[in-house]
Amino acid sequence: MSTSAIPRTAPREGGARTGAPVLEIRNLSVDYGYGSDPTHVLRQASLTLHRGEVLGLAGESGCGKSTLAYGATRLLPPPGLVTGGQVWFTDRDGTRSDILALDDAALRASRWRDMAIVFQGAMNSLNPVFRIGRQIADGILAHSPGMSRADATERAAAMLEMVGISPDRRRDFPHQLSGGMRQRVMIAMALSLDPQVLIMDEPTTALDVVMQRQIVEQIAELRERLGFAVIFITHDVSLLIEIADRIAIMYAGEVVEEAAAQDVYRRPRHPYTDALLHSFPPLRGPRRELGGIPGSPPDLARLPTGCPFRARCAFAFDACAHVVPELAETGVPGDAPFRRVACLRHDTRSVVEAGFDPQPLPEELARR
Amino acid sequence: MPAPSSVDPPALRVVGLQKHFPVRGLRSKKVVHAVDDVDLELHAGSVVALVGESGSGKSTVARLLARLMPATGGTIELHGRDVTGGGRRAFRRYVGRVQMIFQDPFGSLNPVHTVRYILTRSLRIHRGRLRGEALEEALAELLERVHLAPVERYVDKYPHELSGGQRQRVAIARALAADPEVLLADEPISMLDVSIRLGILNLLRDLRDRMGIAILYITHDIASARYFADRTMVMYAGRVVEVGDSESVTQDPRHPYTQLLVGSAPDPDDMSTRARGAHGEAPSLVSPPPGCRFNTRCPFATDLCREEVPELLDVGDGRAAACWGYSDRSDRPRLGSVLEAYGSRTSSPGEGAAS
Ligand SMILES: Nc1ncnc2c1ncn2[C@@H]1O[C@H](COP(=O)(O)OP(=O)(O)OP(=O)(O)O)[C@@H](O)[C@H]1O
Ligand SMILES: Nc1ncnc2c1ncn2[C@@H]1O[C@H](COP(=O)(O)OP(=O)(O)O)[C@@H](O)[C@H]1O
Ligand code: SF4
Ligand code: SF4
Ligand SMILES: [Mg+2]
Ligand SMILES: [Mg+2]
């Protein structure tokens, strides 16, 4: 049974089945700034994307969502530097390669064909002096040696039509389009080389909810048709619960929880996830008093010892100041086997090993 | 909850507010119809939310009310006195009573000044000759009122040393220095981190209750309007399309646009009643469609809708909707469920039939 707004993808003929990992990010670390004192913005972040699924990546501004996406695709602008980890990409034929270990030529070939990104704020980055059809065609040509311009132009028109922009607008300049249409152009461009992974960084944040829903539906429909997997980055957890199959929650440069969308919503295991879910006033249902989360996110250049959330956590105890929690199984018997959480309330062993008394799991973090 | 009562005269009242911006660079006499025919009352101790998509005219209404620019039509009354004329002194007095908070807590505070400077300057401007002890006291009181305590921790900081939420609190404190009766808050939380937004809304609500301030809360997030505002007004393409108590407007929207807006907002608790298959976008405000401005997207539009502008019509319980469907004209459109009307359509136009 599925309540997701996005229908599951049917197995693609001749392709791999839905469910096998297509992208495995392992212990990815990123620093910003050179010299003796770089900021460790991303610390050992791990994430798995399965073929054909929508993985939501949520967290507050500055927690490292974009950094994770750009680090994993080697698109990190300086002074960002990947300092560790692997990013395993599995092709349709089953060959695996570590994107971080590819040489430049192989990387160029892989990018956009295997993976495409719609950057945060991208709809404002279209070149104002070129017609949109031309911009898409140029993108196709740059990655398709041997293709004729006529073919690229035709493909560009087909892509625009696919995202709901009628072909007679392909000679429009970007300023003649609304924000929602410009965002569709970016999506058309990203999909034009038939990628297996589409990473979208805040694709709807600048749009109002009506347009947001139209774009989200469009992505769902295209995924259904083309079978790519999506990493959808946003700070809007409510949206993710609707559209994602699984959700990863980030806090201060780490993935702190990863689970099926409905599990995140109904059975959060991390105190931050739980608090975050109580930070949105509901549109329906009973009106209740809400408090938000006290304090504010930590400065990544001056992270506290132990758990980065502890200054704001209602369940912090003495071990939290000394032990860095790792992403591991939850402490709730019967949880889905692939669920992960980084919290010492779930990790009795690490607490004991460090010489502290373990604390019981509060009811809020163990809902069934 | 303090409900606006009819005996209690509004602190601020606008009637027929209009703002047409000239379109620059063209020799034509074209204008942007940013705001048309807006009526609005703000009562002491009560919050009115102004909700609508980007470009619908919300900020323009706020800027007109703050008198940051002149309206091209309509009247503004403070306690029943028309303020649209009046000299410099009257203008200064008005600005003291009606204060504005902006969306961007980063841009609205001067980065070269400390919190102390920012707030004492505002206190001096609005409260005259406060000096020494009295000034320090007023300063401490302001910071405490926006929950920036202990005062010593914040008073000598520069804006860049504060978090977004703390900056927005300083901006609110600066507005409070004037001891205003009306606060115009233009998207005060939309640039803040999700986890600290509620803290700011709760603070504003506290000010409403304890100081009896009238608040205009501008947002594109209709769920936050439900949480925070007593009454909600919905704008579409420069016009008010629906107004009523927040609970009714959000739970039982009457205007087709409000229905679309509510039905489009993500809501994990209720995924079955989502607006699907909606399409189209807001019309150009340079040449808005005649009649109802929503007629280009409305599934129920008729010729009447395309010819005559609907007034706000009484739909009961102190609510009103600007839709011909609620009139008693014989040629009125038959309204149905927006969600069903859109949902029954197949994919958006321009979409080739998938084989
Ligand atoms: N070029 C840079 N130099 C130094 N620090 C940077 C740079 N770019 C990003 N950072 C820092 O890295 C952290 C993570 O940034 P990132 O852009 O990944 O966040 P995000 O989660 O995508 O945030 P948002 O929701 O605002 O887009 C932040 O603390 C940010 O200030
Ligand atoms: N100074 C201005 N000159 C010309 N047009 C303007 C100006 N300010 C706003 N507008 C236009 O008025 C309309 C309403 O804008 P605004 O009030 O900012 O909307 P909102 O706050 O609801 O997003 C928009 O079409 C906008 O482009
Ligand atoms: S490790 Fe401790 S401080 Fe961190 S989230 Fe868990 S209980 Fe809270
Ligand atoms: S039915 Fe007519 S008047 Fe009512 S919203 Fe639709 S177009 Fe406007
Ligand atoms: Mg980002
Ligand atoms: Mg605005």
What does this entry show, briefly?
The complex is a heterodimer of chains A (368) and B (355). Chain A is an alpha/beta fold.
**Radius of gyration of chain B, Cα only, in angstroms?**
22 Å
Q: What count of structural domains of chain A?
A: 2
Give the amount of beta strand of chain A, in percent: 15-25%
Q: Tell me the Rg of chain A in angstroms.
A: 21 Å
Return the CATH topology of the domain at 12-114 and 179-196 and 203-236 in chain B: Rossmann fold
Report the total helices of chain A.
Answer: 10
> What is the level-2 CATH architecture name of the largest domain in chain A?
3-Layer(aba) Sandwich
Summarize model confidence as the mean pLDDT of chain A.
88
How is the main sheet of chain A built? Answer: 7 strands, mixed
Residue share in β-strands of chain B: 15-25%
Low-confidence stretches of chain B: 1-5, 345-355
Number of strands of chain A: 11
The largest sheet of chain A has its strands arranged as: 6-7-8-3-9-10-11
CATH classification, class level of the domain at 12-114 and 179-196 and 203-236 in chain B: Alpha Beta
CATH class annotation of the largest domain in chain A: Alpha Beta
Helical content of chain A (DSSP H or I, runs of 4+):
25-40%
Walk me through this protein's architecture.
The complex is a heterodimer of chains A (368) and B (355). Chain A is α/β, with parallel strands linked by helices and 368 residues long. Chain A folds into two domains: 210 residues, P-loop containing nucleotide triphosphate hydrolases (Rossmann fold); 69 residues, no CATH class. Chain A is 27% helix and 20% strand. The two termini of chain A are 18 Å apart. Chain A contains ten helices and eleven strands. In chain A, α6 links the parallel β7 and β8. A seven-stranded mixed sheet of chain A has the order 6-7-8-3-9-10-11, sandwiched between helices. In chain A, strands 2-1-4-5 form a four-stranded antiparallel sheet, with helices on one face. With 355 residues, chain B is α/β, with parallel strands linked by helices. Chain B is globular, with a radius of gyration of 22 Å. Among the domains of chain B are: 155 residues, Rossmann fold (3-Layer(aba) Sandwich), CATH 3.40.50; 90 residues, no CATH class. The longest helix of chain B has 18 residues. Helix content of chain B is 32%, strand content 20%. In chain B, 46% of the residues are buried. Chain B is built from twelve helices and twelve strands. In chain B, the strands form two sheets. Chain B has an eight-stranded mixed sheet with strand order 6-7-8-3-9-10-12-11, with helices on both faces. A four-stranded antiparallel sheet of chain B has the order 2-1-4-5, with helices on one face. The interface between A and B is large, with 52 and 50 residues.
